[in-house]
Write a structure and sequence with these properties.
- The longest helix is centred in the C-terminal third of the chain and has 28 residues, at 186-213.
- By secondary structure, the protein is mostly helical.
- It is built from 8 helices and 2 strands, in the order αββααααααα.
- A two-stranded antiparallel ribbon has the order 1-2.
- The relative contact order is 0.13.
Length: 222
């Protein structure tokens, strides 16, 4: 059996439940990327792209023959978005390379940018919910739309170096955990639950780093 064939078909069976190894591996790569992001390392972006490519095949259910024939279009679409935005983030973080591989320093977004992020989160969810429903995404469709929009904003915020991007991930995780468990994506659901704690930790680490670098600066422009 070839490596590619094994990667697509291999499953971890727990009781009556089957979990694709590519779902597990995709989430492991995602965790490694998040760890790299917390430490502000450039390698976080290419590692994340590998995980996104694996998870794309998982969340398109029927198209790639997963044991769970549920399509989560928001989850699938955000993997494509991740790959595109991660390419931008990879470029943005390497414009000023240094020996340590750390090229970004945390900064607060402006109040105007924060308002735009909140408006984008709410407006994007409202706009995409009927679109995902028409395409046959899993209910509750607004949850899938919320996760997609939040993922777009959080990944862009990470590329920009905004401390607030961690809090957007928290909002995504709160909605994502129950959605993924209800849809039968248990490995991803467990990973989202772990991410919820992890993202809060990342927020305080970046916040502390910013306080050390800029003790007298509250926010900066977008």
């Amino acid at each position: 059996m070839s490596l590619i064939h094994w990667l697509f078909d291999a499953q971890l069976v727990i009781g009556s439940q089957s979990i694709l190894w590519r779902e597990i591996l995709g989430n492991v790569f995602g965790l490694l990327s998040a760890l790299g992001g917390m430490r502000r390392k450039v390698w976080a972006w290419p590692v994340g792209i590998v995980g996104n490519a694996l998870l794309l095949t998982v969340f398109l259910g029927v198209a790639f023959g997963t044991p769970n024939p549920v399509n989560l279009l928001g989850q699938a679409g955000r993997q494509i978005m991740f790959i595109l935005v991660s390419a931008y983030g990879w470029w943005a973080w390497t414009r000023r390379p240094d020996e340590a591989g750390t090229v970004i320093e945390p900064t607060w977004a402006s109040w105007r940018t924060r308002a735009l992020l909140v408006a984008g989160m709410a407006g994007g969810t409202l706009a995409l919910t009927p679109v995902f429903r028409a395409l046959g995404s899993y209910e509750p469709v607004w949850s899938d739309a919320w996760i997609f929009v939040g993922s777009v904003l959080a990944t862009y915020g990470m590329a920009k170096g905004w401390v607030e991007f961690w809090l957007i991930w928290v909002a995504v995780d709160i909605v994502g955990v129950p959605l993924l468990f209800s849809a039968g994506y248990y490995a991803s659901g467990l990973m989202y639950a772990f991410y919820g704690v992890f993202t809060l930790t990342g927020f305080f680490i970046w916040k502390r780093r910013n306080a050390v670098l800029r003790p007298n600066v509250e926010t900066v422009g977008a």
